Amino acid sequence: MRSAERVVSSARLAELYECSALLRRTRQRAEQIVNEARAMLAEAELYDDPIRVLALSSQLEEARAAYRRILQAYTTICRKIGEERNAIIMAQVQETRTAVHEGLSGVA
Q1: Cα separation, 39 vs 34, whole angstroms
Q2: Within the chain, where are the H helices?
Q3: Which of 35, 47, 59, 76 gets the highest tally of CB atoms within 10 A of its CB?
Q4: DSSP secondary structure letter of residue 47
Q5: Terminal-residue alpha carbon distance, the chain
Q6: What's the DSSP call for residue 48?
Q7: Which whole number is the average pLDDT over 73-81?
Q8: What is the signed CA dihedral for 8, 14, 20, 21, rounded to 10 degrees?
Q9: Sign of torsion, CA 43 45 46 47?
């Protein structure tokens, strides 16, 4: 991996980590919202408030759907980070092999 490619890959990996951190915080907040919506629905059911139960059921489903989308995005970013790290490692291994091979052929 040439120096410029290494810089680009490292920068891309850093950006992915930043996105990952943001999505992790967003995922945590979305999880809190789902839990709060679930608790409010349970309270409405406890007090036998059918209008609130209906409204809160809908809101809970919306919160769950949003949470699923965020979780999917977070999973995608994590997978991309793994792929980028693997690409960098593979390039470094290839560089090492090339350097060793060139060093050996010069000696032999």
Answers
A1: 9
A2: 3-46, 50-107
A3: 59
A4: T
A5: 26
A6: T
A7: 96
A8: -160
A9: positive
User: How confident is residue 39, by pLDDT bands cut at 50, 70 and 90?
Assistant: very high
**Per-residue tokens: 14:** 């850093």
Token pair of 23 as six digits: 């999505």
Amino acid at 19: C
- What is the rounded distance in angstroms from the CA atom of residue 58 to the CA atom of residue 37? 10
pLDDT at 96: 83
Q: What range defines the domain where residue 87 resides?
A: 3-107
Looking at the structure of the chain, the number of domains it has is 1
What per-residue confidence (pLDDT) applies to 57? 98
**Given the structure tokens 């406890």, which residue do they identify?**
46
* Closest to 79 in 3D by CA, of 19, 3, 2, 33: 19
Hey, what amino acid is at 4? Answer: A
Structure tokens at 67: 């949470």
Taking the C-alpha atoms of residue 88 and residue 86, their distance in angstroms, rounded to an integer, is 5
Rg (alpha carbons) of the chain, rounded to whole number: 24
